[in-house]
Design a protein that fits this description.
Blueprint (H helix, E strand, L loop, with lengths): L6 H35 L4 E10 L4 H14 L2 E9 L5 H10 L3 E4 L21 H10 L1 H11 L6 E5 L2 E3 L5 H7 L6 E5 L8 H4 L9 E8 L7 H9 L8 H12 L3 E2 L5 E2 L19 E3 L5 H6 L2 H5 L2
Parallel strand pairs: 1-2, 1-4, 2-3, 6-8, 9-10
Antiparallel strand pairs: 4-7, 5-10, 6-7
Helix pairs in contact: 1-2, 4-5, 8-9
Length: about 300
């Protein structure tokens, strides 16, 4: 049926209002009855991988649901490092640490640092001034530092806090058993173009553009120079997708493989509909980026967790 002019925007506004209510209900569940919810989730296995995520106090509900959905559909990781932008409250940290014995929280106050050269890997040291400046200015600069310096000892999944896991996430068992193993995997972006404009000036459209919100590393990056050399050329003038562009270059240089977009979903086509293009049994992962953040909460948490 053809939609009336403006109907989609009204639909999204209503869905966002519903989502706000469902998000608040989930936070109340976390505050009052998280232990009972975790019993219902009943993670059946441990999985030999680590997770690292980047989030803030404003993303606390999303981060919690991301962790619980991982337990539900993937298993219990060896470790989950939450890299905080520095804004998490003490009560949020306590909630995470007291309820998940595999969680560690890490953060640095970039505003108080005059140099990070002594904290950088040898291959990163030539770029330390640029990374520190980026980290002082924007949270994504801090994410860049954390992800480049996270030691990969087991297969490690680097994700944003707005990623949920679903029924087909058992595909991680297959991915982890792949032999020979690629250096890593990534979730391809839905469309070409979510990159720094200065990169796009020099490169034509490519298949399977990297989305930096979901990367699975089997080992540390072998090559970072080209990505960080591009970082230097932007000369402290950051765009929203500058850090994603750095990872685009690095992951391509390290021969990362794209995951199938049929089950690893980054798609905003249903943002103006009440219905969902993808149901839990059809997906392994969905990244609820800004345009579809309301879809994460349009249904209540039980829908996502199959409870």
């Amino acid at each position: 049926m053809k939609k009336l002019p403006g109907q989609g925007g009204i639909t999204k506004k209503i869905a966002t209002s519903i989502g706000k209510s469902n998000r608040e209900k989930f936070l109340k569940q976390v505050e009052s009855n998280l232990a009972n919810l975790l019993v219902k989730v009943n993670p059946k296995k441990a999985i030999a991988m680590e997770v690292a995520s980047f989030s803030s106090c404003n993303d606390f509900a999303e981060q919690m649901l991301s962790i619980v959905s991982f337990l539900r559909y993937v298993g219990t990781p060896v470790k989950w490092t939450i890299y905080s932008d520095g804004s998490h409250t003490q009560s949020q940290k306590d909630c995470l640490l007291n309820n998940f014995n595999f969680v560690a929280i890490s953060s640095m106050d970039f505003t108080e640092l005059n140099s990070i050269e002594h904290l950088c890997k040898e291959e990163i040291k030539p770029y330390h001034e640029y990374i520190l400046h980026y980290g002082k200015k924007l949270a994504l600069g801090r994410r860049l530092y954390y992800y480049l310096h996270h030691k990969v000892e087991l297969p490690t999944l680097f994700i944003d806090s707005d990623i949920l896991f679903y029924d087909k996430a058992n595909s991680f068992d297959i991915i982890l058993s792949e032999n020979p193993k690629p250096d890593g995997w990534y979730m391809p972006d839905a469309i070409w173009g979510c990159l720094d404009s200065r990169y796009k000036e020099n490169y034509s459209e490519q298949f399977y553009q990297v989305n930096a919100g979901f990367m699975l590393l089997n080992k540390d990056f072998n090559i970072t120079k080209n990505g960080l050399d591009f970082f230097k050329t932007i000369d402290y003038n950051y765009e929203y997708f500058s850090d994603q562009t750095i990872f685009q270059i690095i992951l391509k240089d390290n021969s990362f493989m794209p995951l199938t977009p049929k089950t690893f979903i980054l798609d905003s086509e249903d943002q103006f509909d009440f219905s969902y293009l993808y149901k839990p049994k059809q997906m392994a992962v969905r990244h609820y980026t800004g345009p579809v953040r309301h879809k994460m909460w349009q249904k209540n948490y039980k829908w996502h967790l199959g409870l």
